[in-house]
């Protein structure tokens, strides 16, 4: 039993219940919200370890919840999206969700994803024995998980931090998208390699002075990405 809490925000009762049942069987403690406002109330009281979030919700929608969460830290988010909502999915990832599943999905798949995302956010804590990395305009501190650009402190999600840490701790080494998926996400079968592009773009927006002409996170055409110190 892990006892970690997972908040399921979903207005369709059948999905909410099935997901909760599977998560409970896997040893997690599910919490339920049928709409966005209830979710905010629950999270204000106590922040769950993970949020499973339907994007289309009555009252306060999934995007607003994602924004609200990202203003407050790096609680991992798995989005639930419909098949035809690809643009929404990308928007959600860009706003800071960690992963997504497309409806209809198997509850077992969702449990695997939840486990992987939680493992990643815990592994981030394990990185904490390492020393900070210093570059001229950039400091990456695994103890505090803080990234400083010039004099600005940036808040990164667990996934963004892991991705940056992997690249920056192997300067000039080129990683393919599949290698990044494997090392950062750990579940290459489920995740579309296109998600890596979205994450790279988000990282650049956070740490580069000019994201369209990145100095640190460079694209190696036809191969992947590397960190230039
Ligand atoms: Ca819905």
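^ structure tokens above, recovered residues below v
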């Amino acid at each position: 039993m892990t006892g970690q809490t997972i908040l399921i925000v979903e207005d369709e009762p059948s999905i909410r219940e099935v997901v909760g049942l599977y998560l409970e069987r896997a040893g997690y403690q599910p919490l339920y919200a049928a709409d966005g406002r209830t979710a905010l109330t629950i999270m204000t009281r106590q922040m769950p370890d993970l949020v499973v979030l339907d994007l289309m919700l009555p009252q306060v929608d999934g995007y607003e919840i994602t924004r609200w969460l990202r203003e407050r830290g790096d609680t991992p988010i798995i989005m639930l999206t419909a098949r035809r909502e690809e643009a929404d999915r990308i928007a959600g990832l860009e706003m800071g969700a960690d992963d997504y599943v497309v409806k209809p999905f198997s509850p077992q798949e969702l449990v695997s994803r939840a486990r992987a995302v939680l493992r990643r956010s815990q592994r981030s804590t394990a990185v904490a024995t390492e020393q900070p990395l210093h570059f001229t305009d950039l400091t990456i501190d695994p103890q505090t998980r803080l990234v400083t650009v010039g004099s600005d402190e940036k808040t990164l999600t667990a996934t963004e931090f892991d991705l940056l840490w992997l690249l920056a701790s192997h300067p000039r080494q080129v990683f393919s998208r599949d290698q990044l998926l494997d090392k950062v996400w750990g579940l290459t079968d489920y995740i579309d390699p296109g998600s890596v592009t979205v994450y790279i773009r988000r990282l650049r927006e956070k740490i580069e002075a000019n994201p369209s002409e990145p100095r640190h996170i460079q694209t190696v055409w036809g191969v992947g990405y590397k960190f230039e110190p």
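The pocket of calcium ion is lined by residues 11-12, 54, 56-57 (CB under 6 Å).
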